[in-house]
Design goal:
By secondary structure, the protein is α+β, with helices and mostly antiparallel strands. Helix content is 54%, strand content 10%. The protein has helices at residues 3-7, 12-32, 44-56, 66-69, 79-90, 94-126, 143-163, 171-179, 275-303, 308-345, 350-376, 387-406, 414-424, 446-453; strands at residues 167-168, 188-190, 196-209, 232-244, 250-258, 270-272, 346-349.
Length: 461
C-alpha cells in the first residue's frame, strides 16, 4: 500500500500519522526535561571531562578545593544528647531545665505535625513511580509522565534534604570518586556513563579515620590483601538518586561510605580486576603451567611420541581454560563481597527513604531551635537588633560551641534557626497551638502549582 493511498483512507491514515508525530514529540519533550530534573543541569559529558582531568593527575588524595566544595552542616549529637549538654551548660537551675524541656516538647509537637503533612504530600508525588507499591497495579506510565513525576519528586526532595543538613556533592567530587580507587577497596568496579541519564549524591557526617568493617566475605582471604590504612575520609550517611536509560529512578541511602567508594553504590556496575591483581594471577598461572609442562609435558612428549606442535596446542588450550576458570572465580568472589558490603551499608530504599528523610529533617529542625533558644537567651540584648546581625552572632557562637563539644567543624545556619525559633515562639504553651507555625514548605506539587497559576493559594503547611 503506497503512502498516498494510505492517506486517502477515510481519516484513519491521517489520524495514525498525527498519533505517531505526537508520540515522537512527547518523547522529545520528555528527554528535554532531563537537564532540569535536579534543579541544576548535570551534563554527564561535563562529568566525563572532569574525570579526564583526574586521570591525568598523579595520585590525587581528595577533590580539588575540597574544603570549599563540602561544608559539614550536620549537628553531630542526637536530640537527647544535645538537650543534656544544653541543660548542663546553660540551664542548670531547676526552673530553666523545666522551661527548656517544655520548649523541646512543644517543638516536637509542632514539627511532627508539619513534617507529617510534608511527608504525605511527598508520598503522593512518589506513589505513581514507586516500584515497591503493594496496592493494585495502575495503568503503566509513559516516558513523559514518568520523567515529569521524577522531576516533581526530586524537586520536592531538595528542601527536605537541606533541612536534614545533607550537602549535595559536586560534579567535581563525583568525578574524583569515579576515577580514584583507594588501596583499601579490594572490590573495584567500572561505571559506563552512557548507561545513565543523571546521578546525584548527598552526604552528611564527614569523618576521617579508620572505617568500620562491614563484611567478612573475602577481606581476609587471598595472598595479596594489604593492611588497611590508619585513616580514611568517609561519610556517615549518603543519599543516592540515579536513573539509567533502561531503568527508573533509584532512591537509596547508605551508611559509612568512603569518598572513593561512591561509585560502588550506583546501579548497573561491573566488577573489574585491578591491574596488580591481574598481573599476580597471570604470574601464578604461568609458573604453575610451566611446572606442569616440564614435569608432565616432557614425559608425554618422550613416551607417546606426540608432536611438539600438538602438545603445545593442548597446553595452550589447557592454560586458557584454567585462566578463564580462575578469573571467573575471582570475579564471583568480588561480586559476592560487593553484595555483602552493600547489604550491610544500605539503610533505606525508595518510599522508606522518604520517611527516613522526613524524620531526620524533623530532628535537625528541633536541634536547631534548641540551640537558637539557648544561645539567644545569653546574648546581650536578646533578640533586639537587625536580624542579619543576630543570625551572624548566633552562627558564630554555635559553631564555636559545637567545635569545642564534638571536635567537628559544623556550618550552622543561623538565619534558618532564628526563623524557625520565631515561628514557634508565639504558640509556646498552647497544646495544641491555636495556629500551627508556618515553617518552610516544600516545593508545590503539580496540582498546587496549577492552583497558584490560576490565582488560587495552596493549602498552608
Amino acid at each position: 500500500m503506497t503512502v498516498a493511498r494510505w492517506l486517502r483512507l477515510p481519516g484513519k491514515g491521517l489520524a495514525m500519522l498525527h498519533m505517531t508525530r505526537g508520540a515522537l514529540g512527547s518523547r522529545e519533550r520528555a528527554w528535554s526535561l532531563v537537564p532540569t530534573l535536579l534543579g541544576t543541569p548535570r551534563a554527564l559529558s561535563s562529568l566525563a571531562e572532569k574525570m579526564g582531568v583526574y586521570r591525568k593527575m598523579w595520585n590525587p588524595t581528595e577533590p580539588r578545593d575540597w574544603a570549599q566544595q563540602y561544608r559539614e552542616r550536620f549537628i553531630p549529637f542526637s536530640k537527647e544528647q544535645l538537650l543534656r549538654l544544653l541543660i548542663q551548660e546553660f540551664h542548670s537551675s531547676p526552673a530553666e531545665k523545666t522551661a527548656l524541656e517544655q520548649f523541646s516538647a512543644h517543638a516536637d509537637f509542632c514539627t511532627v505535625l508539619h513534617y507529617h503533612h510534608l511527608l504525605a504530600r511527598l508520598q503522593a508525588l512518589y506513589d505513581p513511580i514507586n516500584p515497591d507499591r503493594e496496592t493494585l497495579d495502575q495503568p503503566s506510565l509513559t516516558d513523559p509522565q514518568r520523567l515529569s513525576n521524577e522531576q516533581d519528586v526530586l524537586r520536592a526532595l531538595e528542601p527536605l534534604l537541606a533541612q536534614a543538613n545533607f550537602s549535595a556533592l559536586s560534579e567535581d567530587t563525583l568525578a574524583y570518586a569515579l576515577v580514584v580507587h583507594h588501596p583499601q577497596d579490594e572490590v573495584q568496579v567500572t561505571v559506563n556513563l552512557d548507561q545513565y541519564i543523571y546521578m546525584q549524591f548527598w552526604a552528611l557526617g564527614q569523618r576521617v579515620g579508620q572505617m568500620p568493617h562491614m563484611s567478612s566475605v573475602g577481606s581476609k582471604r587471598g595472598f595479596f590483601t594489604k593492611p588497611p590504612p590508619a585513616e580514611r575520609r568517609y561519610f556517615k550517611r549518603v543519599v543516592l538518586a540515579a536513573r539509567t536509560r533502561q531503568g527508573r529512578l533509584v532512591l537509596k541511602s547508605f551508611k559509612d561510605t568512603p569518598l572513593e567508594g561512591l561509585e560502588q553504590l550506583l546501579p548497573e556496575l561491573k566488577v573489574r580486576t585491578p591491574a596488580m591483581q591481574r598481573a599476580m594471577l597471570n604470574l601464578m598461572l604461568l609458573v604453575s603451567g610451566l611446572m606442569f609442562f616440564v614435569n608432565v609435558g616432557m614425559v608425554v612428549l618422550s613416551d607417546l611420541k606426540m608432536a611438539t606442535s600438538l602438545l603445545l596446542l593442548l597446553f595452550a588450550a589447557f592454560m586458557g581454560v584454567r585462566a578463564s576458570k580462575v578469573f571467573g572465580q575471582w570475579r564471583s568472589a568480588q561480586a559476592l563481597e560487593l553484595a555483602h558490603m552493600l547489604y550491610y551499608r544500605s539503610t533505606s530504599n525508595n518510599s522508606e527513604l522518604l520517611s527516613a528523610l522526613a524524620l531526620r529533617a524533623q530532628n535537625e529542625h528541633t536541634k536547631e531551635v534548641l540551640l537558637a533558644r539557648s544561645f539567644l537567651a545569653r546574648r546581650p540584648g536578646g533578640v533586639q537588633g537587625p536580624p542579619e546581625e543576630i543570625s551572624s552572632w548566633l552562627q558564630s557562637e554555635v559553631e564555636s560551641w559545637l567545635l569545642t563539644q564534638s571536635g567537628c567543624e559544623v556550618t550552622f545556619n543561623g538565619s534558618r534557626a532564628l526563623a524557625h525559633l520565631q515561628a514557634l515562639t508565639p504558640s509556646l504553651g498552647l497544646f495544641p497551638p491555636s495556629k500551627l507555625p508556618r515553617l518552610d514548605p516544600l516545593a508545590p506539587g503539580p496540582a498546587e502549582a496549577s492552583q497558584v497559576a490560576s490565582g488560587g493559594r495552596p493549602p498552608a503547611a
